[in-house]
Amino acid sequence: MAAGFISTVMISLLILLAAAVALAVCVQIVKRRAMAAIEGIMGVEGDDCVPKLEQIRVLKEAGISIAPADMEQEFILGLTPSENEYLASHPYYGFCILAGSRKALNCVYSTGDRECIYQWDSYGKILNGLKAISGLPFEEISGVERYAVSFRFHDRAYQWKARKNRDWMDTGMAGFLNRILDRQGGGEQRFYLDNSHEAPLYLYASASMADRVNRETGLKFRMAKAAHSR
Questions:
Q1: Exposed/middle/buried for 204, CB within 10 Å: 0-12, 13-18, 19+?
Q2: What pTM value is reported for the model?
């Protein structure tokens, strides 16, 4: 009798295990079909297009991820069809421009446009964006005037002044920050700049990571050069 009871229990456990495995398989199938459906509404056409989900995967493997992590679903499901089409037809840099300008990437920042930099504190906002992706302790950031920003870094005061070119952005601030980091010998990470598109992209990374990002995505990040100002 005891043997029959044990046999019944074992059979029941095997049935439950088989059901759990079947459920897991079904969940994976549903996930794959859901992802395929998402890709299907993204407007991906043409040989040069890259699906958004593929871009997210490649960028993440190279070290660029959506932050905080719970925003990833918003970028997967929450963008408009026109935004998805733009991202697919402008692989990687379109995604970095869109997400970077929304301060949604862990180490990439973008102004979203290189024109219309005309507000009193525009360069202060840009420095705050570079602070966010680097975690560096820039403090007392203040737009001194339309073309300048002051700040403190490790208890020393600095001021960076942009070249005046109507409302076009001067991208040289990151090079100025790299010069400060070189003088202080702080770690191996520096600011990199891809200035080849409609909006500049800034990356805070090591040289090896920047090389990998360029290799995997076709982006053109180069070490931001030292610039004018003091």
A1: buried
A2: 0.77
